[in-house]
Structure formats: structure tokens, C-alpha cells
């Protein structure tokens, strides 16, 4: 993948970090976006050590459109070479039951899970158009497709990410742009700590690993431009 320039949002932990590691090991050039400066520096060094020829870390909160624009502005030329965006940003709440939600907690979930995906797509889709194509991968959740205990705000925002991804594909395929949404089931990431009752070790042992989602991203990225995966659902085999 030495000819690839991949932007990974949410690169500092979980699925984003695992995907950065997998792409780096295959020689991809990486632009890594995250909110935590220390963890961003860690994964940037890790990616370089694994074999990524060029790694650029950009600290920004993608849920804040103005902050994202300001952070990306000095890297405009580099971003114009990006051929793939992987958005792995996602959070959940401990107090997630519908009647526990407040206007503030509902709004925070929309900002992080849905608005960040929108803000990133608003930046990258016009760039893809200019370069004649590109691949957008949004990581959503199986919660977008079926009811589960993840909570109304999480399910609504992840369903929004899924719908937006399909809409972008519908509108942009003639411009050479492909958009894929990946729907993971329970995955052993820091997000599990946000459950009202953290999962047991036995439950964690049955969960997907971040590396499984990274492999899915690698599969989609390696397909020829003539092939399009619209939606990919991955669930633990033992439930």
C-alpha cells in the first residue's frame, strides 16, 4: 500500500489505532487525526516504526467544524493527496437509557458521533471530487440496524452515520467516489467501559478485537476501484 495516502480520524485508540497499525505495516502513508496530543504522538511513532514512510499527526476535535478547519488548513496540500478517509470516531454514555438522556447529553452524542462524520465528509468529499475519486469508510455499529442495549442516542447517531454514508455514495459515485459503512458488533475497545455495567472478562473474551475491524478496513481498501462494498456487518461468532 505504499502508493496510498490514508486519513484516519479517531486514530488514537480502539479501531482507529488498530487500522493505523495495519495500514502502516503494509507501507501506507498516513495522516492521523485525534484529540489527545500525547496519544496521537504515540500512534504516529508506532506507525513509523511499523513501516509507514510518511506519518503526519493532526490534533483536532472533528465534532467542532471551526476547530477542524483551522487544524487542517496548514496541511491543505497534503490533504489533497489523500485517497482514503477512515472515520472511527465514536463515544457512548453511561446514563444512556432514554429517560436518563438530557438535551445536553443527547447533543453531545450527536456532536461526536454524527457531526464529526459530517464535518470530515464535508472536508474530504470536495477533495475527492477534485482528484477524480476516493474512498470514504465510516465505522458505525450493528446498533444502527437492530435494537440493543447501547441506548437511543448511540443507536440514533450510528444510524445517522450509516444513512449519510449511503447518501454520499448515491450522490457521488459518478465522481469516482466510493462510500462504505462498517457495522461492528461488540468490540473490546475502551467504549465498553462506558456501559452502565462493564462487561465481564468472559464477555470480553467473546467480543471482536479492534484488529478484526482493521482487517475489514484493509479488505475494503484493497479492492479495485471497480468494486464497491456498500455495507459490511461484523459480529462476534460466539454470542
TrEMBL record:
SMART domains: PKS_KR. GO terms for molecular function: oxidoreductase activity. The keyword Oxidoreductase applies. Pfam families: adh_short (PF00106). Keywords: Oxidoreductase. InterPro entries: KR_dom, NAD(P)-bd_dom_sf, SDR_fam. Residues 4-189 form the Ketoreductase domain. It comes from the Bacteria. Belongs to the short-chain dehydrogenases/reductases (SDR) family. PANTHER family: ALCOHOL DEHYDROGENASE. This is NADP-dependent 3-hydroxy acid dehydrogenase YdfG. It comes from Poseidonocella pacifica.
